[in-house]
Specification:
625 residues; alpha/beta; Rossmann fold; 3 domains; six-stranded parallel beta sheet; five-stranded mixed beta sheet; 14 strands; elongated; aldehyde oxygenase (deformylating) activity; transmembrane; EC 4.1.99.5
Length: 625
């Protein structure tokens, strides 16, 4: 909200959530019924009938701007403001669709109340000319002076400061305003529409085309990367008075007292409010500056709806943990077509760019899903994708590459060792994060624990974890004899006395891997602590037991541009495997941690704490809350 919210700041349907769309339902049903039942001799009401499809198209169009903009700011060298975008901004801008809904409702109401709006033709060229002239004249002129008035301290504190809370803008920042302020903007934009209606020159195409034009210019001006090609201004120099650029409007959000114009800088030139650095900033951002990543985290998609939770997907979904069960049936069905399209991509893509101190950190996504990793047929193709990502990371100058989720599966690349074997002089250090993951697990085990039950398959993490537990003289029980035999072969002989095969499920602390079944969970006594050592959380079915987080850490306060949750983890919490690569780069360790190579549990943990990472446990967080 604004610094001191004024009257009518709240949107009328703010408490309805997504149920606000029910307000459109009766109007849409009415217009559709009238359109379908109109006899051949009567003229159909095209304008009213078009409101619903235009609303849906504008929602899709806006989401495309969000996704493209976030993709560009994660990879583009044309970024304008190199500052952090945070969860507070995502929460503040989650109602970006309110103005689209308001437009639809106003169109319905005016159509029903004004007879002249009920027989509007599909096209009228006179209306196009009228709309263009009225926008260039009254709309742009009045908006300029209204905008300057909104920067007066009284109106700014009560209304416009809400919009300016976003220094780093995204396309949807353009429509984030208190309700009263948005209504005034709508009154301005209604000048061409109502004039066309009053003069009989209105048409469905021009009326809705004007809305699309406003959306396009609004979204373009609030992108945080420069995309307007210079050739446009070279071919037609006067265009600089008629069309702004993202860098032009960005200066308004960083300097506050310049570049007030709506879409046409003409009035800033006329009234002396043009920022003197506008042309220079445009040239610099258009030329751009390459930023090489220092750390690359390679992850992949999990369930079909996880693509919607990416930073490039729905901003509000990405800012919340992917909850278990991971998706509702409705969301899964809706995401299925997009999931199929994503899985056709032939290379990884950048999803996120962060900074910590002087490190540039990027997250790359392998466009494949967990089910494809578990299929033997898909492993070979996935292996090629990961190998290409390793080569791309090295070519970009990355010092460290971490393998997240199943990208380090033993059957896929032996915890990353395969790439070091194939390229012994690999400069980019491959980090599987086993040491820090084990350290995070050890932190979650309740103090005073004397014995634990180990469930899961043999892996590098189980070996390192079992070794660390035995060194603490903790009894490690297992019901799987094969796992016991495997650990006996891997651990030093003096530690074998702490390994025990048992058919009992009496331990109060269970260390669980990926394949924990519901049947096994039912054997646990009440109050058992389930502590995952895998990257995937167990399916929590016991209300009388305690479920801990997958190994993770809270990121340092100075970690920038983090506004999306990592899978099922909460805000500003990062998986230990991902954090391990960052710590590796900060410490400038000149060795891989993959295959059989281990950094050292205590060494990795102390280094993480020294750089500002903090322990995280869902159980501890819930108790504290």
């Amino acid at each position: 909200m604004a610094t001191r919210p004024g009257p009518l700041s709240r949107w009328p349907w703010q408490d309805l959530g997504n149920y606000k769309y029910a307000l459109v339902a009766p109007w849409a049903a009415r217009s559709t019924y009238r359109f379908m039942t109109t006899s051949g001799s009567e003229e159909r009401d095209l304008l009213s009938f078009a409101v619903l499809p235009v609303l849906l198209l504008r929602l899709l169009y806006s989401q495309l701007w969000i996704s493209v903009s976030r993709h560009q700011t994660a990879r583009s060298k044309h970024r304008i403001v190199n500052k952090s975008l945070d969860f507070d901004q995502v929460d503040r801008e989650r109602n970006w669709d309110d103005q689209i809904l308001l437009t639809a409702l106003l169109f319905y109401v005016i159509n029903a109340a004004v007879p002249a709006a009920q027989a509007v033709p599909w096209w009228n060229s006179k209306g196009l000319v009228a709309a263009a002239l009225l926008h260039v004249g009254p709309v742009e002129f009045l908006y300029y002076w209204l905008h300057r008035a909104l920067h007066h301290h009284y109106l700014y504190a009560r209304y416009h400061s809400h919009h300016h809370a976003s220094i780093v803008t995204e396309p949807i920042t353009s429509v984030i305003h208190p309700f009263a302020e948005e209504v005034v903007y709508f009154a301005l934009f209604a000048i061409p529409l109502l004039t066309m209606m009053g003069t009989g020159t209105a048409s469905v195409a021009v009326a809705n085309g004007y809305l699309v034009y406003i959306d396009f210019m609004n979204y373009l001006g609030h992108c945080n990367f420069e995309l307007v090609p210079k050739i446009l201004f070279d071919v037609f120099p006067p265009l600089k008075y008629l069309m702004y650029t993202p860098s032009f409007h960005s200066l308004h959000h960083t300097q506050f007292r310049t570049n007030y114009s709506l879409f046409m800088p003409l009035y800033d030139y006329l009234y002396g409010t043009l920022d003197k650095s506008s042309d220079d900033l445009y040239e610099r951002t258009l030329h751009g500056r390459e930023e090489a990543p220092d750390v690359v985290h390679l992850t992949h998609l999990t369930t079909p709806d996880s693509v919607l939770h990416l930073r490039l997907g729905f901003a509000s979904l990405a800012a919340a943990p992917l909850a278990a069960p991971f998706a509702s049936r409705l969301r899964l069905r809706g995401a299925a077509p997009l999931a199929k399209l994503t899985s056709l991509l032939g290379s990884t893509f950048r999803a996120e760019a962060n900074r910590l101190d002087k490190l540039n950190i990027e997250t790359w996504v392998v466009p494949r899903y967990t089910s494809q990793y578990l299929s033997k047929e898909g492993l070979h193709a996935i292996g090629r994708l990961i190998e290409k990502a390793v080569a791309d990371a090295e070519a970009s100058g990355a010092r460290v590459l971490t393998l997240g989720l199943l990208n380090q599966a033993n059957e896929l690349n032996r915890n990353g060792e395969l790439y070091v074997i194939r390229k012994p002089n690999l400069k980019t250090k491959i980090v599987d994060g086993a040491s820090l993951a084990v350290a995070a697990v050890l932190h979650m085990i309740p103090p005073g624990t004397k014995d634990v039950l180990f469930l899961g398959d043999a892996s590098k993490v189980t070996t390192v974890l079992a070794s660390a537990l035995c060194e603490q003289e903790m009894q490690v029980q297992m019901v799987d004899k094969d796992l016991h035999d495997c650990l006996t072969q891997e651990l030093r002989p003096e530690l074998h006395k702490h390994l025990l095969v048992s058919s009992s499920y009496s331990s109060k602390v269970w260390l669980v891997g990926d394949k924990l079944t519901d049947q096994e969970q039912r054997k646990a006594q009440a109050g058992v602590h389930f502590v995952p050592y895998s990257q995937f959380p167990p399916n929590a079915i016991r209300e009388d037991c305690v479920y801990h987080s997958t190994p993770a850490l809270v990121v340092p306060d100075s970690f920038e541009n983090l506004h999306a949750c990592e899978n099922w983890l909460p805000r500003r919490v990062m998986s230990a495997w991902r954090a391990a690569g960052i710590v590796h780069a900060l410490e400038k360790w000149d060795a891989h941690e993959c295959g059989a190579r281990v950094t050292g549990v205590d060494k990795a943990w102390q280094a993480a704490l020294a750089h500002g990472f903090r322990p995280y446990d869902r159980h501890d967080a819930a108790v504290a809350k």
